[in-house]
Specification:
Helix content: 25-40%
Number of helices: 7
Strand order of the largest sheet: 3-2-4-1-5
Number of strands: 5
Distance between the termini: 17 Å
Structural class: alpha/beta
Low-confidence stretches: none
Mean pLDDT: 94
């Protein structure tokens, strides 16, 4: 198991800003960062400058990719796209984009490990018209992600991801661009359960 795993939530997205203001899903599919979110990412880049990692695992949702690239893109740390820790698919912003669209926006990254439709598209549509995961779906991905991390050969890993996924992983909500070290002892217990 890696020695250090830091979890970093993405910067503020257009979905976050609208939902916080109105409580309504604004139908922002694969939401991008706001201007404030970009500022949060730049501040995080400076805050985490002294943190050294062997690899960064970024969710394929655009706000997480923008955050990972903004924080680590000017350093010699590889960024790997990993769909298993994408956000809990319950809102429009959690519906992804095809690999071709992501590759066009982020040509410096490798998306070849993703299926073209890497988010859940096989579930019934909700009243807003997109498929939603259940809590059981999310918990299964949390267990699978924990096993994936346990099998990684790197010693120091940064994971750029999402609020609801990380809350299920560590039991608390992270603010935008907040970093916390994942208690790997708790991860081992989850794997034994």
């Amino acid at each position: 198991m890696p020695r250090t795993v830091d979890l970093i939530r993405h910067g503020q997205s257009t979905f976050n800003a609208h939902y916080e203001a109105t409580g309504q899903d604004p139908m922002h599919y694969d939401a991008r960062l706001t201007t404030l979110g970009e500022q949060q990412v730049m501040a995080a880049r400076d805050r985490y400058r002294d943190r050294d990692y062997d690899i960064v695992l970024a969710s394929p949702l655009t706000r997480a990719i923008q955050t990972a690239h903004g924080i680590f893109g000017d350093r010699e740390i590889p960024i790997e796209i990993c769909a298993i820790h994408r956000e809990w698919q319950i809102s429009s912003c959690d519906i992804g984009r095809e690999v071709a669209a992501l590759s066009a926006d982020f040509p410096h990254l490798d998306f070849s490990a993703l299926d073209d439709r890497w988010w859940r598209h096989d579930l019934p549509a909700c009243s807003l018209g997109f498929p939603q995961e259940t809590e059981a779906h999310l918990q299964e991905r949390v267990r699978d992600f924990t096993a994936l991390i346990a099998a990684r050969p790197e010693e120091r890993i940064a994971v750029v991801g999402h609020g609801d996924f990380f809350r299920r992983l560590i039991g608390r909500h992270l603010a935008n661009c907040e970093r916390t070290e994942w208690d790997l002892g708790a991860a081992r217990e989850l794997l034994r359960a």
